[in-house]
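Handoff note, outgoing to incoming analyst
You'll be picking up this chain. Sequence as last confirmed:
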Amino acid sequence: MPELPEVETVRRGLQPVMEGARIISVEARRPDLRFPFPEKFAERLTGKTVTALGRRAKYLTMHMDGGPTLICHLGMTGSFRIEAGEESATPGIFHYERSKDGAHDHVVFNLTSPQGSHRVVFNDPRRFGFMLFSETVPDEHPMLSGLGVEPTGNTLDGALLSSLLKDRRTPLKAALLDQRLIAGLGNIYVSEALWRARLSPLRAAGTIATKGRKAKAQSERLAEAIRSVIADAIAAGGSSLRDYMHTDGSLGYFQHSFAVYDREGVACPTPGCAGHVERIVQSGRSTFYCRACQE
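Most recent structure output, in case you need it:
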């Protein structure tokens, strides 16, 4: 599943082509993806101008003049491809090549703008992605209304993180993956952030939200680690994991900076640490950490 940096990379790749463009026509080549397409899907988008391309957590939001807003999710294997004439590009930085098999091209947006004519194609072999309409403010849509704070900017600080985790007995990693608390974090970046903060994924989440100087320092350190790892991944263009790539078809580079994720058995990169990266399973998902320096 794509995480926030991957979705932001895709948004930035689509933005120059889609924002300000008029939708000449839409081709929905099947009745559904994960969910059925909204009623009159193509008809309601045809003739609209895309006023803004946004992101909320792991969702893309395409805002139209006069509405509706189109909420998109890439699912496991979804990708957007930009075509202009004979040229084709796929925005996103992901480790394994995205599908370019036309049999999985399920939605096509035909666009015109001062930059020329383009086709934006949504390809999704496994069809876990979806496109839904929001008739009001997107944050009020059921898919988005329960999402927590974004892990970007300075909104997420130690004090806010402490308030979110207070009295929680679940493992720290599980709490950070709860989209109702922090929106957009996934398995990769939680492992990386916990390593940067020197905190064990196994400890109870509430232990860094108690009164006292030590807990305060831990919550501040973790908030900073979360913000920095997300910012670094966005700057590098995402983690380049399987099935995701840029709209221009290139792969990403942040995976080369992983400290612990998918590095089982490698010496811990913390200076002076004699430990090694271990892999454990939490709630059916792999966790990578160093027990020697993450307490």
